[in-house]
Design a protein that fits this description.
The complex is a heterodimer of chains A (about 100) and B (about 450). Chain A has four helices and six strands, in the order αββααββαββ. With about 100 residues, chain A is of the alpha+beta class. In chain B, α1 runs parallel beside α3 and α1 runs parallel beside α9. Chain B has three domains: about 200 residues, 3-Layer(bba) Sandwich (FAD/NAD(P)-binding domain), CATH 3.50.50; about 100 residues, D-Amino Acid Oxidase, Chain A, domain 2, CATH 3.30.9; about 60 residues, no CATH class. The two termini of chain B are about 45 Å apart. Classes of the chains: A alpha+beta (about 100), B alpha/beta (about 450). At the A-B interface, α1, α3, α4 and β6 of A face β11, α6, α7 and β15 of B. Chain B: Part of an electron transfer system.
């Protein structure tokens, strides 16, 4: 299994999911003010899913906490980004 | 300076147990200071990703003699390979040295797995007397009378006080921003790295890469390997696995609408790479940012009661030939510790006293190296070096070696034809040659 799908990749990563999300989107801004949707392409965990109405569906649970999305996003206030509580979130074992 | 508050007081609070933080904690604790090392991960290294070749062996050897005999290391790197790629060809420079310092102690570099290595390094700081608190997210700095006097951990009564705070919280460093020392970043200043560790039998690794015992090789790839995205790729040998990954500038990923993990798959499928990874099995996928711009994104490095080190200070040399961050993280962490130790001896933690950090950074060759290579990142991330030249070289070689019955061309006419085919103007060529020279030669 050299070539792997994104789902197969994500299955190798351990996450300890916190009860509350550490990243929250302001979906109004995503839907009404953003045409680039940069987050959809850059997120290495593929957590931003474009919706038919122009909005974005986001789930924080399998996040690498890398920061790429808030840096790529060109709309002020669209992403409220912080780290999950201590000990939660991604836990790498080999990388 | 005002008297320290009556609560529990540390000499040094270090935020982040990566190589910068753990090195700073180790040195400070050995100097007899009361040290608190805070890490948000379940264990040090749980959040951290590198290639990873650790080029700081000689530095660490000063602190822990023959450290590699005790630490979780994979292979010592005695071969380095730099390849220029087109979609179907590669032209590589292969450097192999088993001589002094490469094949012998203290060794030039080791592949490591960060979750294991970072955990070990933090344990060394703990053994030297530092308090290490994991699962602790620092949310802000504490201020009194305008000066930083500690940090706030996200928990009940999370205030921790200390004379000097050293921010070693990595590339996103919210602490440096909270302290007003760093600005917000632009997407062209950072790159995203996506990586896989794939398992492979050690005997196959040794045969396939022509390595003896614990020898290792580091491949860096430039050019069309990331298609039209500015970036590169790497492949390093571990003991019984390979670490491989693709690095792409954020702005360029956005512009080209490329998904990083798809570039990673194409990298593995490249005809020059596929035979190297054949038969391997994915163990872990990961992703992390790199502060590519180095000198250009350096924050203000100190203020009253606080210093910034490692990736948090932009001390990561990511410029084509080099991908070195762990060694500079360690060096700058040590320089910050030396500054804190001297400040504690004087009992003064003002910005003026902490300005000595600049001197220590120079003595440890951090600021001097980054100044010397300050032109490299922007040039390396330019479109011509990223894609055009590597592809020109690869195509040129393809034609140089082609035997198809047509008359053989000598190198100069061939180069001329290449330049025309890729629409290069001589003026541009000279300007770029000057830029390369300025970035790497003097
Ligand atoms: C794909 C990739 C490949 C690389 N390859 C190499 C290589 O081969 N060789 C090399 O030398 N360098 C490499 N680098 C660069 C190297 O990883 C970094 O330069 C290095 O890790 C920086 O060390 P640091 O201690 O400054 O930061 P980090 O290693 O990032 O450590 C920061 C620590 O702070 C913790 N932290 C952050 N915020 C908080 C907070 N608020 N509260 C508590 N804790 C916090 C984090 O959990 C982390 O443990 C690579 C980087 C990437 C992404
Ligand atoms: S998060 Fe930012 S980039 Fe993504 S859709 Fe919303 S506004 Fe656009
Ligand atoms: S932090 Fe990284 S992994 Fe998490 S959502 Fe943002 S881009 Fe995706």
């Amino acid at each position: 299994m050299v070539m792997t799908t994104h789902e197969e990749k994500m299955r190798t990563v351990r996450f300890r999911v916190a009860a509350t999300p550490h990243i929250v989107l302001n979906s109004e801004i995503c839907r009404n003010q953003c045409s680039v949707h940069a987050c959809v392409y850059v997120c290495p965990a593929n957590l931003f899913v474009p919706l038919d109405d122009g909005g974005i569906l986001f789930n924080y649970e399998q996040c690498f906490e890398c920061g790429t999305c808030y840096i790529a996003c060109n709309q002020e206030g669209a992403i409220d980004w912080s780290y999950p509580d201590g000990g939660y979130g991604v836990t790498f074992r080999e990388s | 300076m005002t008297a320290p508050p009556a609560k529990e007081q540390f000499d040094v609070i270090i935020v982040g147990a990566g190589p910068a933080g753990s090195a700073a904690a180790l040195l400070s604790a050995r100097a007899g200071l009361k040290v608190m090392l805070l890490e948000r991960g379940e264990y040090p290294g749980a959040k951290n990703v590198s290639g990873a070749v650790f080029y700081g062996s000689a530095i660490l050897n000063e602190l822990i003699p023959n450290w590699w005999e005790h630490a979780p290391v994979e292979r010592h790197i005695c071969r380095r390979d730099i390849a220029f790629m087109s979609p179907t060809t590669s032209v590589a420079l292969d450097f192999h040295c088993v001589g002094d310092g490469y094949g012998t102690a203290p060794y030039n570099g080791f592949t490591v797995l960060r979750p294991k290595f970072d955990r070990w390094l933090a344990a060394q700081a703990e053994a030297a007397g530092a308090f290490v608190l994991t699962s602790a997210v620092v949310d802000d700095v504490l201020r009194e009378n305008g000066r930083i006097v500690g940090v706030r951990v996200r928990r009940e009564q999370g205030e921790i006080y200390g004379n000097v705070v050293i921010a070693c919280d990595g590339v996103n460093s919210f602490l440096a921003k909270k302290a007003g020392l760093q600005r917000t970043f632009h997407p062209h200043e950072l790159s995203l790295g996506v990586k896989e560790v794939v398992g492979l039998d050690p005997a196959i690794i040794q045969d396939r890469f022509r390595l003896n015992d614990n020898d290792g090789i580091a491949f860096e790839y430039l050019g069309a390997i990331t298609e039209d995205v500015h970036g590169g790729a790497f492949l390093y040998t571990n003991r019984d696995s390979l670490s491989l990954g693709v690095i792409g500038q954020i702005s360029s990923l956005v512009e080209r609408r490329k998904r990083p993990y798809e570039l990673l798959e194409r990298f593995k499928a490249h005809p020059a790479v596929a035979p190297l990874v054949r038969g391997s099995k994915l163990r872990e996928y990961s992703a992390h940012l790199i502060p590519e711009s180095g000198w250009a994104m350096k924050p203000k490095l100190y203020t009253d009661g606080m210093l910034v080190a490692g990736d948090a200070a932009g001390f990561c040399l990511a410029a084509g030939l080099y991908l070195e961050g762990m060694n500079y993280a360690m060096q700058s962490g040590l320089a910050a510790a030396e500054t804190a130790i001297a400040a504690c001896a004087r009992g003064n933690f003002s910005a003026r006293t902490l300005a000595a950090y600049q001197k220590h950074l120079k003595q440890r060759h951090v600021s001097t190296d980054f100044r010397a290579y300050r032109h490299a990142p922007s040039f390396v991330n330019g479109p011509r070096l990223q894609n055009l030249y590597p592809e020109m070289v690869a195509c040129g070689m393809e034609q140089l070696f082609r035997v198809d019955g047509a008359p053989k061309r000598k190198i100069l006419p061939l180069a001329y034809r290449m330049a025309r085919q890729f629409e290069m103007k001589p003026g541009q060529l000279f300007r770029d040659a000057y830029q390369v020279a300025r970035a790497y030669l003097w």
